[in-house]
Amino acid sequence: MAKETMRLDRFLVLSGACKSRTDAKKCLHDHCVYVNDRPVSSAELQVHPLEDTIEVNGRTYRYVANRYFLLNKPKGVVSATKDRISETVLSLIPEADAKEYFPVGRLDKDTEGLLLITNDGELAHCITSPRHEIKKTYFVRITGVLQKAEEARLNKGISFEEFTSKSAEYKFLREDSEESECLLTITEGKFHEVKRLFHAVGHEVLYLKRISIGGLVLPEEMKPGEYREYTLEQLNEAIFTVD
Ligand code: URA
What we know:
single chain, 9-stranded mixed sheet, binds uracil
């Protein structure tokens, strides 16, 4: 890895030193770029991102590769980078430094399931932005049996003080007068949304697990607390390509 090289103009864009390759070319042309204390002007120069010292206008830039971890979040840990009382999801992934990495969205402390941890703010924004309406599916165990009229209310959207939910897709899996199991798919990510939706139609959530984001599905064999690294390409294809 340390031996890998890349073109200087690519490095300048990826490291955030320049906004675009055109901007990088201008900086090079204006003699603002130094590699290992020597001025350079060639955009094609091959640099070692992890070894060379690259300065632009006197400031040193480093290239931080983005990494992506899919965690099966266990109960009892909080979706935060730090917490004074509880263990955080970041503490479960030793490779992910809590100063740089963060969870994409949140799951409640007692919720399990699919949570992405990354240092890529752009991808995180794409997934969480309401504009993109990425579907999130939850396995939910609730008290009692959801009645047809209640299901219709979930489908239609429910008004809360600060928002009206979009249509939720409900698929029942098991029914019992005591408790039932279902899959619920929503496109927003409001605070305690699933619990609030069911509460609004008269049921409490007994167990909650997120099983997919877009077409990215939590692998069944992953136990709570386990994680896997994915590439950006794998995530893009899985999350944003849904049939
Ligand atoms: N909705 C909730 O109520 N809790 C979660 O953790 C996620 C969605």
